[in-house]
Design brief:
Elements lengths: L2 H4 L12 E5 L9 E6 L23 E6 L3 E2 L7 E2 L8 H26 L6 E6 L1 H10 L7 E5 L9 H4 L6 E6 L8 H12 L4 E6 L8 H15 L2 H5 L6
Parallel strand pairs: 2-3, 2-6, 6-7, 7-8, 8-9
Antiparallel strand pairs: 1-3, 4-5
């Protein structure tokens, strides 16, 4: 068989500057699940990608990919942002979010196509502003596999009933001492999602500020495994050589 005919050249990303570091599947085989990590404001994808090593053992066929936010951080000489928070009015935040979502969707579409994966094999994991983008984007894509939000919030929850496209399982993790994104945002997001029949779980980290701790990371790993890996595949894992 002609190898080149059966395996066409994988398409290049239209915005290669958005693709950060990645961890290939530990199974050493084809990528079956793609977990994309969206960082917080003022850093880049390198800030978040290393938490994925905690999830590799339970998601052997997953590739973990960091996405860099598309814009330079406008309040410091380094770092990146998904949207500006210089003007925090709801209209400006929503406008910035919609611009970011368009760019993220194109990146996700191209990343899935390159790996020949369907949306249901995609999970989004975000922290802070990246978590807001993960929620906003993932609920408006067809058949997203799972969403994890660390220290995030739901932007424009009043619009979600009219714009929701898929209802993936969602995990919200938030420290009750968060000094950046108020802890109350988690309760608001959970209520809005439950009202729309989105399967949502929440986890309060007592005494934790605006960060991710080991307990939250472990919970996210279990959640991603349960959301992405079919039960039969998980049961067969011991016999999988």
């Amino acid at each position: 068989m002609d190898q080149t005919a059966s395996d066409p050249v994988k398409p290049a990303l239209s915005r290669p500057d958005l693709e950060g570091r990645s961890y290939a599947p530990l199974s050493c085989g084809k990528t079956v699940y793609l977990v994309v990590l969206l960082h917080g404001i003022g850093v880049d994808g390198n800030d978040l990608i290393d938490i994925a090593v905690n999830w590799q053992p339970s998601l052997l066929k997953a590739e973990f990919l960091a996405m860099h936010a598309p814009f330079p951080f406008d309040q410091a000489p380094v770092g990146r942002q998904w949207f500006s928070i210089a003007d925090r009015s709801p209209d400006k935040i929503l406008e910035g979010m919609r611009t970011a979502t368009g760019i993220v969707n194109q990146f996700l579409d191209e990343s899935l196509a390159k790996r020949r994966l369907e949306d249901r094999h995609l999970a989004l994991v975000g922290f802070s502003q990246g978590a807001m983008v993960a929620l906003h984007t993932g609920l408006r894509r067809p058949k997203t596999g799972a969403i994890v939000s660390f220290s995030g919030a739901l932007v424009a929850p009043d619009l979600l009933p009219h714009e929701i496209v898929s209802r993936p399982p969602v995990l919200l993790v938030h420290g009750d001492q968060d000094e950046v994104v108020p802890y109350e945002r988690m309760g608001e997001a959970k209520a809005a999602l439950k009202a729309l029949d989105v399967p949502v779980k929440s986890m309060t980290r007592k005494g934790l500020g605006h960060t991710i701790d080991e307990t939250g990371i472990a919970a996210a790993g279990d959640f991603l495994h349960d959301a992405l890996v079919p039960k039969k595949a998980a049961d067969d894992h011991d016999h999988d050589h």
